[in-house]
Task: structure prediction
Amino acid sequence: MHEKLIEIPGVRSVETVGLDLDHTLYPRSEKMDMAIAECLGRKIAGHLGVTGKQATYMFRDAYSRLESSTKAFCELGISDGDKLLDAAVDEADVTQFIEPSPETVEFLKDLSSRVISMDLITGSTMASTREKLKKIGIPLDLFGWIIGAEDGRKIDGGAYKLWLSKYLCLRPENFLYFGDRPSVDAEVPQSLGIKAVLVNNPKIEDGISVVQLPSLFDIKKTTLWQAQNVLSQ
Ligand SMILES: [Mg+2]
Result:
């Protein structure tokens, strides 16, 4: 008896998938969170009129209670928090904590064989992206396109519009994006007609209309796997 597959609405029209990098292709860890929180603290200290250490504490406190970075920024009265968080994720030296993952590499090879193209759309710079992929063990040529911080930002939709423009024969509904953050990885692409699924998101977020999976590998439990299997038979 097969387990019931998790349905991704409109999955049969998917031709190309895009992936986020940070906290999507490698799991977050406590050490990474500490490094990011410290970097973020330095960035938000000025907004709050406190020291970096105090700002780090205030953000961590709000985040642990609200379990959402967007809500934590809101409580602290910081309007461009998502932008600051993207910058902190990229600037904090998390690469040192990333572990090699043959399982992720195998999974991505399998995923890429089921679609026309598998692309990477990340808020990380290209230099940082190369380093992180190397640490995990993912070859760069597994991706068709790599869109990094230098090419456009996700928060204002620029990076996603660039992704769409790479495929003149496809419509937005033919694109499916996987990421870990409700705002930049789901709401923004959805506003452009791109399908989105959240992964590595242990807490189910309310108020957003998106499939949420506990891990990247759970993509295998969705109708994307079934739909593509049917197509390839
Ligand atoms: Mg991410």
Remarks:
- The mean pLDDT is 90.
